[in-house]
């Protein structure tokens, strides 16, 4: 692969709260290539959404962020506001989880598209309106011209998410950061939105980081996957490799707890226990207390990311003891 | 429901409101000690004169007929003649009302001009020194009685520094503004404190909203994010608050006009009460009550303009 589009290096995010510091993201490193779809997976509180929001510097004052986020060779964490603003929404756009709360309730949808075009293009008013209509058409919203003057509460949930995607695409970004874009939607709509996103990504040649807790979604949509647990990266690699030959006990456990896996009627295996509280960091592997493969050093020494195949890294002492999920060669 | 239908029903709601106000004023006038005849004639009226006046004023009719007659004359805009000034009440109020409207209008403008920017500064520097300073100063504004603020301003700016006149209203529009400035500041004091605190709190909650993060993620300038996305949403709650305070603002005008000798309806109200000028009291009560309901209407309209979800 050439120089990746986005390089996240040793990203750390610490929140100062009333009860002390919380290390929400603890040294996360990954790359996203041009046109690539990366799935960022983890349970609630694993730090996946915080990681995503740290990339365009969207976190609030109570978050201390360190590490590097390289975009075309410049570190988004340190460039001046003015240059960051041109990249935000222009080259790196974001889709939020909950369209009802992410769309401004008192502004017409058309204006919420228009302001992106004003910020990032030289189009005149008429051209911007044409572009806005075109965008709504692109995301599958019918009678776009009338829809432009309507407000978010006049849209259904699925249509709202489509509108938000249209807003994000307005300035033709090269990278889309999607924060659980289907979680807030009805199951029947989820698939439509996901299909739409994938179709747009391939049509427009965008890259996408898709944050989700749904491994099924990752299997369907992503080229590569990065698994997070308690603010740390466990395993990253091509989706097929990670799903067929997981190299981290947590990934293995996640895959076993996923429905639709194995023979019909096979039992799901839940992961026992709860994720650790990240305000009390553990010395070893954060997953060790819940891990069925844990050995003594797992609780005292922290495993580092090690390559098991080209582009397939994992931080697990049990990596070689984990069973392959499909017969080698059959995959 | 369409917005037009909402507006029509909102206007229709005012009909029963006005009827109730009229009824309340009618009842109040009859609850006051003494009656209009005694007030007009004093203690020395002959029995014959009393009887004649009672008939003239329609007080010998049944209470229902009296109410109808009262409502009818109100609808024709006739409130009788002032006992103290010997001129029609309508003319008296028409002379005085613009003064009070201008005073409260200026007070609202001054209060908002102070409160809007300072609420922003306080919210953006939350819990740091600008916030603490602004809140501290406004706390004083909030806890000072209006007549005290008026007297202090009067002493400092009119008596010592001689920048502003001690009282009166002047003759030209520019003079009106000049004369009403100190009273308006006095009146604006507590309103601006209330608005500042409310708006600061509502900015603080809006600024954490997802749509504000989304606006930042779009690469908008911070000025656009703050004015279009934060302020507009934050104002929705504050507009209601300002509307609700119009009533107490008119109450404050009574005190302010007295302290600054401003010839508005507030002062007229005080004078009339002391003079037992019932026709004026009755008419003023009615006019002020109608003004307050009109202020609520304007509040609702602004609300509707700010928030498209209202009335749909």
TrEMBL record, chain A:
<keyword id="KW-0472">Membrane</keyword>
<comment type="similarity">
    <text>Belongs to the ABC transporter superfamily.</text>
</comment>
<dbReference type="GO" id="GO:0005886">
    <property type="term" value="C:plasma membrane"/>
</dbReference>
<keyword id="KW-0813">Transport</keyword>
<dbReference type="GO" id="GO:0015833">
    <property type="term" value="P:peptide transport"/>
</dbReference>
<keyword id="KW-0547">Nucleotide-binding</keyword>
<dbReference type="InterPro" id="IPR050388">
    <property type="entry name" value="ABC_Ni/Peptide_Import"/>
</dbReference>
<dbReference type="InterPro" id="IPR013563">
    <property type="entry name" value="Oligopep_ABC_C"/>
</dbReference>
<dbReference type="InterPro" id="IPR003593">
    <property type="entry name" value="AAA+_ATPase"/>
</dbReference>
<dbReference type="GO" id="GO:0055085">
    <property type="term" value="P:transmembrane transport"/>
</dbReference>
<dbReference type="GO" id="GO:0016887">
    <property type="term" value="F:ATP hydrolysis activity"/>
</dbReference>
<dbReference type="Pfam" id="PF00005">
    <property type="entry name" value="ABC_tran"/>
</dbReference>
<keyword id="KW-1003">Cell membrane</keyword>
<dbReference type="InterPro" id="IPR003439">
    <property type="entry name" value="ABC_transporter-like_ATP-bd"/>
</dbReference>
<keyword id="KW-0067">ATP-binding</keyword>
<feature type="domain" description="ABC transporter">
    <location>
        <begin position="6"/>
        <end position="255"/>
    </location>
</feature>
<dbReference type="InterPro" id="IPR017871">
    <property type="entry name" value="ABC_transporter-like_CS"/>
</dbReference>
<dbReference type="Pfam" id="PF08352">
    <property type="entry name" value="oligo_HPY"/>
</dbReference>
<dbReference type="GO" id="GO:0005524">
    <property type="term" value="F:ATP binding"/>
</dbReference>
<dbReference type="InterPro" id="IPR027417">
    <property type="entry name" value="P-loop_NTPase"/>
</dbReference>
<protein>
    <submittedName>
        <fullName>ABC transporter ATP-binding protein</fullName>
    </submittedName>
</protein>
TrEMBL record, chain B:
<dbReference type="InterPro" id="IPR000515">
    <property type="entry name" value="MetI-like"/>
</dbReference>
<keyword id="KW-0813">Transport</keyword>
<feature type="transmembrane region" description="Helical">
    <location>
        <begin position="12"/>
        <end position="32"/>
    </location>
</feature>
<feature type="transmembrane region" description="Helical">
    <location>
        <begin position="101"/>
        <end position="124"/>
    </location>
</feature>
<feature type="transmembrane region" description="Helical">
    <location>
        <begin position="280"/>
        <end position="302"/>
    </location>
</feature>
<keyword id="KW-0812">Transmembrane</keyword>
<dbReference type="Pfam" id="PF00528">
    <property type="entry name" value="BPD_transp_1"/>
</dbReference>
<comment type="similarity">
    <text>Belongs to the binding-protein-dependent transport system permease family.</text>
</comment>
<dbReference type="GO" id="GO:0055085">
    <property type="term" value="P:transmembrane transport"/>
</dbReference>
<feature type="transmembrane region" description="Helical">
    <location>
        <begin position="145"/>
        <end position="164"/>
    </location>
</feature>
<protein>
    <submittedName>
        <fullName>ABC transporter permease</fullName>
    </submittedName>
</protein>
<keyword id="KW-1133">Transmembrane helix</keyword>
<dbReference type="InterPro" id="IPR035906">
    <property type="entry name" value="MetI-like_sf"/>
</dbReference>
<feature type="transmembrane region" description="Helical">
    <location>
        <begin position="176"/>
        <end position="195"/>
    </location>
</feature>
<dbReference type="GO" id="GO:0005886">
    <property type="term" value="C:plasma membrane"/>
</dbReference>
<feature type="domain" description="ABC transmembrane type-1">
    <location>
        <begin position="97"/>
        <end position="299"/>
    </location>
</feature>
<feature type="transmembrane region" description="Helical">
    <location>
        <begin position="230"/>
        <end position="260"/>
    </location>
</feature>
<keyword id="KW-1003">Cell membrane</keyword>
<dbReference type="Pfam" id="PF19300">
    <property type="entry name" value="BPD_transp_1_N"/>
</dbReference>
<dbReference type="InterPro" id="IPR045621">
    <property type="entry name" value="BPD_transp_1_N"/>
</dbReference>
<keyword id="KW-0472">Membrane</keyword>
């Amino acid at each position: 692969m050439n120089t990746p589009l986005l390089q996240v290096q040793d990203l750390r995010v610490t929140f100062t709260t009333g009860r002390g510091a919380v290390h929400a993201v603890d040294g996360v490193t990954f790359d996203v290539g041009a046109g690539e779809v990366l799935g960022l997976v983890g349970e609630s509180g694993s730090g996946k959404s915080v990681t995503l929001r740290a990339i365009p510097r969207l976190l609030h004052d109570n978050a201390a962020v360190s590490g590097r986020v390289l975009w075309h060779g410049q570190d988004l964490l340190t460039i001046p506001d003015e240059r960051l603003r041109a990249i935000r929404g222009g080259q790196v756009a974001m889709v939020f989880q909950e369209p009802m709360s992410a769309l401004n309730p008192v502004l017409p949808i058309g204006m919420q598209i228009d302001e992106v075009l004003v910020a990032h293009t030289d189009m005149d008013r008429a051209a911007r309106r044409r572009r806005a209509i075109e965008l709504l058409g692109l995301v599958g919203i019918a009678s776009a011209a009338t829809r432009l003057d309507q407000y978010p509460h006049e849209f259904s949930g699925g249509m709202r998410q489509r509108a938000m995607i249209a807003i994000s695409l307005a300035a033709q970004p090269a990278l889309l950061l999607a924060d659980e874009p289907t979680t807030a939607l009805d199951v029947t709509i989820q698939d439509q939105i996901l299909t739409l996103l994938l179709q747009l990504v391939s049509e427009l040649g965008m890259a996408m980081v898709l944050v989700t807790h749904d491994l099924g979604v990752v299997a369907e949509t992503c080229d590569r996957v990065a698994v997070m647990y308690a603010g740390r990266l466990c395993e990253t690699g091509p989706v097929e490799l990670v799903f067929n030959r997981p190299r981290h006990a947590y990934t293995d456990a996640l895959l076993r707890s996923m429905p639709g896996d194995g023979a019909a009627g096979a039992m799901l295996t839940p992961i026992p226990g709860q994720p650790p509280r990240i305000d009390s960091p553990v010395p070893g592997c954060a997953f060790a207390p819940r891990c069925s493969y844990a050995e003594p050093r797992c609780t005292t020494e922290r495993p580092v990311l090690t390559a098991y195949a080209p582009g397939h890294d994992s931080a697990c002492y049990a990596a070689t003891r984990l069973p392959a999920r499909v017969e080698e060669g059959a995959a | 429901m369409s917005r037009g239908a909402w507006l029509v029903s909102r206007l229709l709601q005012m009909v029963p409101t006005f009827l109730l106000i009229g009824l309340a004023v009618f009842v109040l006038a009859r609850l006051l000690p003494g009656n209009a005849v005694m007030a007009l004639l004093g203690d020395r009226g002959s029995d014959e004169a009393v009887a004649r006046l009672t008939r003239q004023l329609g007080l010998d009719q049944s209470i229902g007929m009296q109410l109808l007659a009262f409502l009818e004359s109100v609808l024709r805009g006739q409130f009788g003649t002032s006992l103290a000034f010997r001129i029609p009440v309508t003319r008296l109020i028409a002379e005085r009302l613009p003064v009070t409207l201008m005073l409260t209008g200026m007070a609202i403008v001054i209060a908002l001009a102070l409160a809007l920017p300072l609420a922003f500064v306080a919210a953006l520097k939350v819990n740091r020194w600008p916030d603490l300073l602004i809140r501290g100063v406004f706390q004083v504004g909030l806890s000072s009685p209006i007549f005290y603020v008026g007297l202090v301003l009067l002493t400092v700016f009119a008596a010592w520094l001689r920048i502003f006149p001690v009282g009166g209203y002047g003759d030209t529009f520019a003079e009106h503004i000049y004369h009403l400035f100190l009273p308006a500041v006095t009146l604006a004091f507590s309103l601006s404190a209330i608005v500042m605190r409310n708006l600061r709190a509502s900015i603080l909650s809006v600024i954490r909203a997802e749509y504000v993060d989304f606006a930042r993620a779009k690469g908008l300038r911070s000025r656009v994010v703050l004015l279009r996305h934060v302020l507009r949403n934050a104002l929705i709650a504050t507009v209601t608050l300002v509307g609700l305070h119009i009533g107490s603002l008119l109450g404050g005008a009574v005190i302010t006009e007295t302290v600054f000798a401003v010839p508005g309806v507030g002062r007229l109200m005080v004078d009339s009460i002391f003079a037992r000028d019932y026709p004026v009291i009755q008419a003023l009560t009615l006019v002020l009550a109608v003004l307050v309901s009109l202020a609520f209407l304007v509040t609702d309209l602004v609300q509707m303009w700010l928030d498209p979800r209202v009335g749909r």
